Amino acid sequence: MEALEILLSASFWIATIRIASPLIFATMGELLCERAGVLNLGIEGIMTAGAFAGWYTVYAGGDLWLGVAVAALTGMMFGLIHGFLTVPLGLSQHVTGIGTTLLATSITYFIYRVLLPQETSPPKIDPFAPLPIPFLSEIPLIGQALFAQTPLTYLAFILVGTIAWILNRTPAGTAIRAVGENPAAVESQGISVTLVRMSAVAVGSALMAVGGAFLTMSAFNSFFFEMINGRGWVCIALVVFGSWKPGKALLGAILFAAFDAYQVRLQSVVGNVVPYQVFLMMPYVLSILALIVMSRRAGYPKALMIPYLKGER
Amino acid sequence: MISNKIEGRRDLALRLSGITKRFGTLSANDNVDLSLHKGEVVALLGENGAGKTTLMNILFGHYLADQGEIEVFGKSIPKGDPRAALDSGIGMVHQHFALVEEMNVLENIVLGTENLLAIKSQKNTARERIRDLSSSVGLDVNPDAIVGSLSVGEKQRVEILKALYRGARILILDEPTAVLTPFEAEKLFATLKVLVSEGLSAIFISHKLNEAMEISDRVVVLRKGRVVGEKITRDSNPEELTSLMVGAEIETPEISAPVLGEVALDLENISTNIPEMRINLRNVSLSLNCGEITGLAGVSGNGQAALASLISGTTQVKEGTMRIFGEIPERWSPKVAVSKSIARIPEDRLHTGMIGDMSVVENIISEKYWTDRFSRFGFLTRQASEDFSHEVIKNYDVKCPSIETPVRLLSGGNIQKLILGRVLDESPLIILANQPTRGLDVGAVAYVHGQLLKARDRGAAILLISDDLEEILQISDRISVISNGRLSKITRRGELGVKELGALMTRHVPSSERLNDAT
Amino acid sequence: MRLEPRTETTLIRAVLMPCLAILVTLILAGILVMLADASPLEAFSLVLKGAAGSQFAILETLTRATPLIFTGLSVAVAFRAKLWNIGAEAQLYIGAVLTVIIGTQTLGLPPVILIALMMIISMIGGSIMLYGPALLKTRFGVDEVVTTLLLNFITLLFVSLLLEGVLKDPMGLGWPQTETVHGEARLPRLVQGKRLHFGFVIALFSSIVVWVIMAKTVLGYEMRAVGHNIVAARFAGISVNRVLLKTAVISGGLAALAGFSEVAGTKGNLTLDLSPGFGYTGIVVAMLALLHPIGVVFSAIFIAGVFVGADAMGRATGVPSFIADVIVAISLMTMVVAIMLTKFRVRFA
User: Fold this and answer.
1) Between C84, C152, C325, which is nearest A109 by CB?
2) I need a labelling partner for B304 at 20 to 30 A (CA). Which of A251, B103, B509, C192 fits?
3) What is the average pLDDT across B272-291?
4) Which of C8, C219, C229 sits opposite B378 (nearest CB)?
5) CB C327 within 8 Å of CB C310
6) Which overall architecture, per CATH, does domain B1-89+200-251 show?
7) CA-based nearest distance C296→chain B, Å
């Protein structure tokens, strides 16, 4: 059966990890925001902005890592806008989030057109090259997938551990979790709820932007419109799927990516019987199914989407 | 005069001067002065709504005062900054605990005491310190227990430990006994005495006279946001303090003997299963007769919410039988409850009873908008609801600028009057009054009681659920106590006093046993 | 910084704040225009001219406003009940698909009946599209924001599948597009030789109907109650889930009408670029209108004007027409802040 042989090909696993990487960044970013009690629907737009900012920095002659930093800063800036409106001003996180996505996307497209008015086919950059780790990358089947990726992919995996460490082992992580469960308790201990939530949203948004930048600087080598294509929304589903825990969310991202990589390969096997759109639909359908299955037992942060206004009676 | 005498003896720990705080048109605090000396316990006494909690929230930086100064150990602290208050040595035990239920005791206590940029929490060191601290002051609690699994008394201990862990030298306890059984309250007092003997100062906020007298050196009485009196406790007496608290002498309502009618609501061996509630009803039997007020006393969080939810129609019976005038309702919902002549006065009048952003006229019809009186063919009949609003405003003496005013802008007392007007309009035969006077000023309390008694005298069956034992004793014809989801035997008016009822409330199961029970 | 609720909202403040929001939007957008090496004042006057400077411009703006009125109403209705329908785009496309399917059949019905049939069927389709997520929300607690968003992508792929499959126009030279609907299935033009069509009238009529529903009916009352305070609504005896499902039916149906009107009124057939994000823009339309159904008409015309005007301005100055999307996005943000400032006072500690 050709359909099963796909699973045994190294290229399938390499693709899985590559597809998972941007999702991991963005999912960790969203997870951080939501653990602090802020739903960030700006994710789709922030990823777009990050994808462009990182790519353009390199295109304009910057170093690849500088590109990553610029992307992160760009994401942080939009995160601060979303954070400012939803945390101290306590506005609807739904409406503001959608607004942030519209804003980040439209500004990105506008600036792209201002900077590159004439381009019809998007220019290319030299993206991150794979960095095989000696010996480990020679393990059959998974060696190439796990140990012959670009540095950004390694960073994504390191990030998951870091986020888990921060949330569970550090004072800041305790504050973030507390602020997502009962902000009044945090204020009563002399920590500013606004500060913690804003910081989480800023850092989380930076991670989302790096996730976007992965697409233009590691997975591909140019920026084009609509390239995020709903990945941000998928990440929001992944956070729910992962019950707001970094490890489980990572697993979700890899599962999702494996499915995506699989469907691309399956297309070449059964593509003449089943239209390709059905395959492309699958990731989104899968996300919805994951939400349905997980929402029953999801342990969501109690203060998620509930603004905390200081001095409120 | 009094202050001077004490100042001569002891140093000042805390001084609030000229604190004023307005919420809209309401002056919650009006030029309040308060001082606290080292090693002293001051009771801040006042009726509900007198402005005690507001004052403490200002001191703690949760609210921002419009005017006034705060000085701690001689240094003035910035306004509106909880951090500065904590750092100056103030520790606060909130009435509604400021704890993260999902985290353990240790994390709750340590939260905010470590550098937020540290790469690792020093949990082991902290655990040792908490153990030492809790054994030295007799506040026994396991640092690794998840807070959500603790009993109310244990949670309060965590709150106190939080303050002590930070080295608080001034402890503010906001209505600390409201959630405790009398037994737990005594333990708290003992702890407090130990702490004070070690040099801590404390402000004890309460609306209960006897406990204020028991624990304090000095009493400051607050009424309608102003300080109306300051007395050395041992030189004072309950009568004096009561009249200060209440202002004018209020009359305890004359209660005639009840004229019993038929059984209106009958609960037989009822159990509920509401996942959101920690305590559900367990095998509860209760029948309410027409023409009688049944008071349900108990420490809050012992199943009152489940019972109220059941009678309100928001919860289904899991086991047992509920009869209304002898009939078992086929379906049970708020709508059915209203149509079965049940008047529901909810505990949280602003968030459950009313839709704050909607107007008076829209709220007044919220239970009956679907009846022919207020709508035809799916369209609302505006005139009918306007007429009804004006009628309620007039008959129930509601003060509101217009019937188009959003309800959230009204005072608590006026909101409660609106609710009374709404639910009592068609002379309901069953009335569920859940904490009907909580947070109301004295006048409004008397008004609500008067309305309930009037309804009783015209033959309604009333269930009065209240945390306030005084209230229960005042207007109930018979009394039951709820504890851990179970009801005590019902006693007639006057059979049992405060002490005996208190003992019934304490019949509580330790949390460890409760946990085993749940599994 | 702290927020304190205002005890009263003066009329002046209620008018002034949104005006201030527009002003701030224009200033911020002006900065971006300067980035594109153009003079903001000149650019904005060109936008104004392009949107309302001639009969043609005005008619274009109204044509463009028509689908936005429908999606704006759809969002306004849903958001009023706090049903976060971000899927107007998907509902729009389903409405368009169904309109094309009926409009290309030879049914022999009188035009009025045929058009009514297209409207009703497309509305049913749109309703079903939102009923699903609403059902998932009420049954399983699945957040409808994510499901409706994801459905947008799924629906677009589904439409693409149809356009390359069963609905493909055999005469379309291989382009993914459907056949054009029959002449009697087209909405009549309002002005001879111009694009403005009868869909605009239907949109105006719809906004009045929605206003009546929201303000005068029992259902509207229930929807507002659920939106403002779900706990109190439930306590009062409102069946919250049923209200949310009814809201979904109305909201989904309205969004589908946008698809119907674009196919039957403007385009005649269905392609994958039928909607340049009308569904998403509907969110801004609704928010700018403070979720008021009549206000939606005005904010839709305003936003349509920004888009039409920006196209014209872009051609004249070289400022990318994406500036319109930027203005729309910024105005959403400034407007929500403005609404907040009418209700709260900001105090700095």
Assistant:
1) C325
2) B103
3) 90
4) C219
5) yes
6) 3-Layer(aba) Sandwich (3.40)
7) 21
